[in-house]
Design goal:
650 residues, alpha/beta, eight-stranded mixed β-sheet, seven-stranded mixed β-sheet, 18 helices, 31 strands, 30% helix, binds adenosine-5'-monophosphate-propyl ester, nucleotide-binding, acetate-CoA ligase activity, AMP-bd_C, Ac_CoA_lig, ATP binding
């Protein structure tokens, strides 16, 4: 029986399914999670506090591709992350803000967090935000971002956080798609040695857009920014007008909690929608088990809140569990590569959760900085977002953790809400480079291209999930048909992840990378189609094709082949390449800037006009021959011509 909100006294970490302490216990609980899912997920729901418990655990309608968890339940994510902890441990640190400059911290207790969240929630209400409304947050890594997310949740509004590295165009597209009428941003954002002019970008994004009625501006620095009367308001001044008490809006389990845009292989970014109960149960459970979270831990996830890792493991997971969470404003290498470890020592962090791309950059800076910290508080070191190579895994384990902390390589996606494949620290024997075994309730299958399930070990296939889990995306905002087509059409009745994967003879999973046209650049997802469409918006471009290539720090770099219009006369190639890069920065943001742009006479296309990306990927990776059968190309000689051009521009 799922508990109600009366269970405030015991820590959420003491409830739910027990933690495995051995592989036997993991296997037994994993088996139970698949054999008796209702019992398993009902037990797990006891970690949340419910205004009204659910009457059912899972409803599935495969034809509609509709999954509903915990129907009949009423709850609130903000209550679960804030109020219930403030009620029993008001003085406990909830949020530690590690500011951009080293050594500068600001701590917010659960009581303070509750007050700030309540005030911001009252501000949102005063600006007309009602249950179900989408509020866009274009925010840096500052406490107000967490307040605003939880404030939305408190009143049943749906936040749509847009990563602060996205351009005005990208922000505008997301505001329009979600129909957001209120935008929360900051005047500017220090990030490492730079300052990002967020308000100016936000202004450009909503220029001429009457849809946005109110812009609330957090004051991060002293910088004055133009404020449009009637539309723009300083958040601190607005907060000063309101009391801190804001009554909770109890929502239904399947009411949306947030929308988060991510890239797909085609078309516009997709508004991945997560709902309240299932997402929160899953984020909290994975945080507890994957990091073996203890009540007095300081949990340090370096991810930006603009991505799913920030949502689930900076905000919702740890806070639902009542665990102190760190919000990092700077980059991991500001002012130098010792920054993360200095924070670990200063705050006695038990965990560090980061991305391989950050680790590669830190390794490149050398190990001397490690001697400035002792990192003795660390128990678990987590990695996510892209494959971690065995060398980087070993460095994390040996150098950062001194062999004392468990490394967990966690595989998951924006769509999965939380970790899906992971070792359990101190329990699962690791093989560096493998995310190891599925989490509880996660039933995986590898399918061949014809859709047949491939059994056994030492096999390769398309990674799919065979049954629903609570953290699963329910739909794409405003486009359920696209949701079905994107994830459930390729292999009917399976959720298709878009990743290729190998399963070894011990049943361990090794992600081999995306099998679709999505790139993973520095752990960020980008659709090649998005970059191509940005390039095509430049007058000189007739067509383009974008592929990934191996990059030492980013993992995958962006390689663009551009065909110019026949009438274009190029005076300076450098200038043109600069202009094209600027075009991409303008349309998407700096993260999408191509590392290499090559002007080519044409693209390798089949007679039916399909671009043979396999060949372009090969050339980008430095291959000059061995492209297999090119006889289906409309113009086979184009391959040589492209190779010549690329070679001459190197
Ligand atoms: O290709 C996989 C890769 O990142 C993709 C998901 O990206 P995103 O939606 O931004 O979610 C990030 C949440 C961590 C996946 O389809 N990926 C993620 N984790 C790993 C990974 N590839 C290999 N190993 C991982 N641990």
């Amino acid at each position: 029986m799922v508990g109600t909100m009366m269970d405030l006294e015991s820590s959420p970490l003491e409830r739910g399914n027990p933690r495995a302490r051995s592989m036997e216990e993991y296997r037994a609980l994993y088996r139970q999670s698949l054999a008796e899912p209702e019992r398993f997920w009902s037990e797990q729901a006891r970690t949340l506090s419910w205004f009204h418990p659910p009457y059912s655990i899972l409803d599935v309608d495969l034809e509609e591709v509709d999954f509903s968890w915990y129907m009949g339940g009423r709850l609130n994510a903000s209550f679960n992350c804030v109020d219930r902890h403030a009620a029993v441990k008001p003085g406990k640190p909830a949020l530690v803000w590690a500011k951009n400059e080293p050594g500068e911290y600001k701590v917010y207790t659960f009581r303070e967090l509750k007050h700030h969240v309540g005030r911001v929630a009252n501000v949102l209400k005063a600006h007309g935000v009602r249950k179900g409304d989408r509020v866009c947050l274009y925010m840096p890594m500052i406490p107000e971002t967490v307040f605003a997310m939880l404030a939305c949740a408190r009143i049943g509004a749906v936040h749509s956080v847009v990563f602060a590295g996205f351009s005005a165009e990208a922000l505008r597209e997301r505001i329009l798609d979600a129909g957001s009428e209120v935008l929360v941003t900051a005047n500017e954002a220090p990030r490492g040695p730079k300052k990002v002019a967020l308000k100016a970008i936000a202004d450009a994004a909503i220029e001429g857009l009457s849809q946005v009625r109110s812009v609330l501006v957090a004051r991060r620095t002293d910088a004055e920014v133009p404020m449009r009367p009637g539309r723009d308001h300083w958040l601190d001044e607005e907060m000063g007008k309101h009391r801190s008490t804001c009554p909770i809006t109890w929502v239904a389990s399947e009411d949306p909690l947030f929308v988060l845009y991510t890239s797909g292989s085609t078309g516009k970014p997709k508004g991945v929608m997560h709902t309240t109960a299932g997402y929160l149960v899953y984020a909290a459970m994975t945080h507890a088990h994957v990091f073996d979270a203890q009540p007095d831990d300081v949990h340090f996830c370096t991810a930006d809140i603009g991505w799913i890792t920030g949502h689930s493991y900076v905000v919702y997971g740890p806070l639902a569990n009542g665990v102190t969470t760190v919000l990092l404003e700077s980059t991991p290498n500001y002012p130098d590569a010792g920054r993360l470890w200095e924070i670990v020592d200063d705050l006695k962090a038990a965990t560090v959760y980061t991305a391989p791309t950050a680790l590669r950059a830190l390794i490149a800076a050398g190990d001397e900085v490690l001697s400035r910290s002792i990192r003795a508080s660390l128990r678990v070191l987590g990695s996510a977002g892209e494959p971690i190579s065995p060398e980087v895994w070993q460095w994390f384990n040996d150098k950062v953790g001194s062999g004392r902390a468990a490394v967990v390589d966690t595989w998951w996606q924006t769509e999965t809400g939380g970790v899906m494949i992971t070792p359990l620290p101190g329990v699962t024997p690791c093989k560096p480079g493998s995310a190891t075994l599925p989490f509880y309730g996660v039933d995986l299958a590898l399918l061949d291209d014809e859709g047949r399930v491939i059994d056994g070990g030492d096999v390769n296939g398309n990674l799919c999930v065979t049954r629903p889990w609570p953290g699963q995306t329910r739909t794409l905002y405003g486009n359920h048909r696209r949701f079905r087509e994107t994830y459930f059409n390729r292999f009917p009745s399976f959720y298709f992840t878009g990743d290729g994967c190998r399963r070894d003879e011990d049943g361990y999973y090794w992600i081999t990378g995306r099998v679709d046209d999505v790139l993973n650049v520095s752990g960020h997802r980008l659709g090649t189609a998005e970059v191509e469409s940005a390039l095509s918006r430049h007058d000189v471009v007739a067509e383009s094709a974008v592929v990934g290539f191996p990059h030492p720090i980013k993992g995958t770099g962006i390689f663009a082949y551009v065909v110019l219009r026949p009438d274009v006369h190029v005076e300076s190639k450098e200038q043109l390449i600069g202009a094209l890069k600027e075009q991409v920065r303008h349309m998407i943001g700096p993260i999408a800037t191509p590392d290499r742009i090559h002007m080519v006479p044409g693209l390798p296309k089949t007679r039916s006009g399909k671009i043979m990306r396999r060949i372009l990927r090969g050339i980008a990776a430095g291959e000059r021959e061995g492209f297999g059968d090119t006889s289906t190309l409309a113009e086979p000689t184009i391959v040589e011509a492209i190779i010549d051009r690329v070679a001459s521009q190197e």
